[in-house]
Amino acid sequence: MADSNPTAFLEVENVAWGAPRALKAGDPPILKDLSLEVVSGRWIAITGPSGSGKTTLLSICAGLLRPTEGQVSLFGEKLSGLTDPEISRLRGSRIGLVFQNYHLDDSRSALENILLPSYFGQSNWHEMTGRARKLGERLGLSDHLDKPASVLSGGQRQRVAVCRALLHSPQLILADEPTGALDQETADLVLQVLAEQVSDGASLLTVTHDSAVLSHADLCLAFDNGQLREVASP
Amino acid sequence: MSRWRFLSLEKPRVGSRFRLRDRILCSLGLALGVFFLVLGWGVITPVEELIRTKILGTLPDRIQVAKSSVSLGPLAFGGQIDQQSIEEVKQIPEVSEVYRQAHFPDPCQLHAQYAGEGLVTDLVLEMVDPGQVEPDIASGFSFEDPGPGQPIPAVVPRAILDLVNSGISVNTSLPQLTEKAILGKGFDLYVGTSSFRRGAYTKVRCTIVGVSDQIGAGGPAIPYEAGMRLAKEPPIIHSLVLQLTDPAQAQVVSRRIDSMGLRAPKQELASRVTSVAAILKLFAALLPLAVLSVTSIALGAVLELQVSKERQIIALYRAVGATQQQVTYLYLARAFSVALISILVGVGGAMIGGHTLAYALEQKIPADLLQGQSLFAPPLYSIVLAVVFCLTLTALAGWYPARTAARLEPAQVFREPA
């Protein structure tokens, strides 16, 4: 169940961003005066054409990219005031990231890839291994967990990436096209798991072109000239 | 240990990006540097000591002093050191002890059993202060005057053993004499008589308590006080051994000795040996250091290349929670894993190679010359030095690539083609 008095896990205030070289060349910034608030138990979907700044926004929200202007706050703390270890700790324990291209370490097994955040944190290893296996089984990866990531199909890789993002039961999930490589049935399964996280109080910010994802969202936003505007859910 | 769990990502395993074969290849150069450093110092140090003790008969912290004699053709005059000179030498600040060595003034004869045969020979008996031969006294024995009626301890010059072994034993059926074989054995000393000067004698029992290079090649030595007790005439002190507070002051003391009308005949040669050994040691350190430096630069380049190949993985680590410090440690750990293999291979190789070389050489060198000496036995400090060099250079080589890895911008890397 969503929190009756929701707290803002993510606040983006008047953020602007442009690649330094592009800005020097006189190009307009990709993101302009963009503001967004993501509260607990909410699913927000963002859509927009390629190159509109969707992935850039997710990177800024995850603290992987510093905005040229504006402020980003995670769980009530301004990222500009946090040190690298503090931001890294937030990413490793309270934020789950699903990348558009999955980004798996092909030299490791699927299970090791799911467990990757645990290598850098202080969590209980046995507990995390059990949870990783459960998540893998839930998303239909039982027979593939011990296989090297390099032999997995695109859909399996995407599910491994989703499992990795959910390993620490994050409060904020930032997902870039989480169902992009999945068939309808598996996509529904992934969306069901994500929806469960939201109903447990997590907030989800997804970038997607998938109408099924948009239909699950509480709020749909679309990029328009570097800013976000609300659109109707399909 | 969960704080360091991330380092397990660097464990060598099948399919790892930094394969065991690559680790070993990267390690070879560093291992060679460690190998030559340990082996070089392992041979130069004992060889220097060997030359000083076995050939020159001096230790680095000792100076042997004799009287400046006046030579006239084959004749030399004035070889005795008087008490005043001894007192002057004792006043030199850099000298902590002065040991006297004198010829026993009365004639004497040795009576012993050697390989079942009776042996009688005239003897040049030496009298020395115990401290002079103390390093050569065998464990469990003492070189102090035991007093009347007790067997007197005696030290045999190693040169006599060499003479018997290389001059007599090889041409006869007599066995080789080793230090172990003669320790604790005794002989009778007939004090007051010899083949050339017959007279009334006193029979004294002596026990061999050590073999030494510190007493020249004249004859066996007994404690100075025991000699004084047995002699009818005053002894002739022909040399002194000065124990220095600091071996580095040997030249200073040597000059003072010259100004006092005494001389240190072996000091100049000993100093040259020390100088040559110092140059060789420097060379033995610089050459491997150069090898280590070049290899560590190569290691740095290899790591830099790996960082550039692993940008996506590094960005992934950062995205899932790795701090910059953890990424730095990961690449430093990789560099140190190479150093660890190098140290194991280098030190192990030097020990095995050194012992093999020592075994081969000891077949060619007379056993008595090497008695108590181990060639190619690296001193502990040379191993410590090699390990410290290797680790320091590895840290320097690994630091730059590790920092490059830590400073990658994940968002920027994720935009690059995988």
Task: Give the helix proportion of chain A (percent range).
Answer: 25-40%
Distance between the termini of chain B: 33 Å
In DSSP terms, counting alpha (H) and pi (I) runs of 4 or more, how many helices of chain A? 8
Strand order of the largest sheet of chain B: 11-7-4-12-1-13
Structural class of chain A: alpha/beta
Distance between the termini of chain A: 23 Å
The percent range for strand residues of chain B is 15-25%
Number of strands of chain B: 13
* Sheet of most strands of chain A: 6 strands, mixed
**Radius of gyration of chain A, in angstroms, nearest whole number:** 17 Å
Assembly annotation: heterodimer
- Mean pLDDT value of chain B: 83
Helix percentage of chain B:
40-55%
Mean pLDDT of chain A: 90
Proportion in β-strands of chain A? 15-25%
Tell me the strand order in the biggest sheet of chain A: 6-7-8-3-9-10
Low-confidence sequence ranges of chain B: none
Report the strand count of chain A: 10
Please mark out the parts of chain A with pLDDT under 50 across 5 or more consecutive residues, or reply none.
none
Radius of gyration of chain B: 31 Å
What's this entry about, in short?
The complex is a heterodimer of chains A (234) and B (418). Chain A has 234 residues and is an alpha/beta fold. Helix content of chain A is 35%, strand content 24%.
Describe this structure in words.
The complex is a heterodimer of chains A (234) and B (418). Chain A is an alpha/beta fold and 234 residues long. Chain A is 35% helix and 24% strand. Chain A is built from eight helices and ten strands. The longest helix of chain A has 16 residues, at 184-199. Chain B has 418 residues and is an alpha+beta fold. Helices cover 49% and strands 18% of the residues of chain B. The longest helix of chain B has 43 residues, at 267-309.
Characteristics:
heterodimer, A: 234 residues, alpha/beta, 4-stranded antiparallel beta sheet, 10 strands, 24% strand, B: alpha+beta, 6-stranded mixed beta sheet, 5-stranded mixed beta sheet, 13 strands, 49% helix
